[in-house]
Amino acid sequence: MGESLTEHRGAEPDLGVLAARVLFAVQRELFTALAEQGFDDIQPRTGAVLAYLRADGVRASELARASGQHKQVIGTLVDDLERLGYVERRPDPADRRAKLICPTERGLLQMEAAAAIMRTIEERHAKALGRQEYAAFKTALQRVADPHRRAHRDSRACGAKPGRLGDQ
């Protein structure tokens, strides 16, 4: 008939469990190292903003789209990061009605520190797996993690008109 619960428990972890393990391990290492460098006032949940922040600023709607979070969640995280001195809202020169989320000096320092920590983490994994296998792993993971963007690119290659879903 079907797989029983006891049979399922003995099976290898599914994609969701493995993805969560990778996410939590990377977050734990990243935020521990950031705290050791003086950025001890930010939490992993702020990664939905910090991971996609650009030095020249980014709109909250872009942060929501890139992170997969609701605009309201992004707004709350931006409020928190603004209060902590990592970001500030500025008028978007391309559209007076819009605001850009821009890193402050402290935000830029955090971005540089996080990038260096992530390079160290990735280098360690590349050495452990071998560079080719690690590159293939990241490529495969990106394809699994972002099927909408891939589907959109494929439809454009076939001559379809671009839709709103995958436009970046």
Into which percentage range does the β-strand content fall? 5-15%
Distance between the termini: 45 Å
The whole-number mean of residue pLDDT values reads 86
Order of helix and strand elements from N to C terminus: HHHHHEEHHH
- Overall morphology: globular
Low-confidence stretches: 160-168
Q: Total number of helical segments?
A: 8
Which radius of gyration do the C-alpha atoms yield? 19 Å
SS class: mainly alpha
Main beta-sheet annotation: 2 strands, antiparallel
Number of beta-strand segments: 2
Oligomer class: single chain
Q: Tell me roughly what share of residues is in helical segments.
A: 55-70%
Order of strands across the widest beta sheet?
A: 1-2
Characteristics:
globular, 2 strands, two-stranded antiparallel ribbon, 168 residues, mainly alpha
What does the model show?
- The protein is mainly alpha-helical.
- It has helices at 5-10, 15-36, 47-50, 60-67, 71-84, 105-129, 131-145, 147-157; strands at residues 87-92, 95-103.
- Helix content is 62%, strand content 9%.
- It has a two-stranded antiparallel sheet with strand order 1-2.
- A hairpin with a 2-residue loop joins strand 1 and strand 2.
- Helix 2 (15-36) crosses helix 6, helix 4 packs across helix 5 and helix 6 crosses helix 7 (131-145).
- The longest helix is centred in the C-terminal third of the chain and has 25 residues, at 105-129.
- It starts with a helix and ends in an 11-residue tail after the last helix.
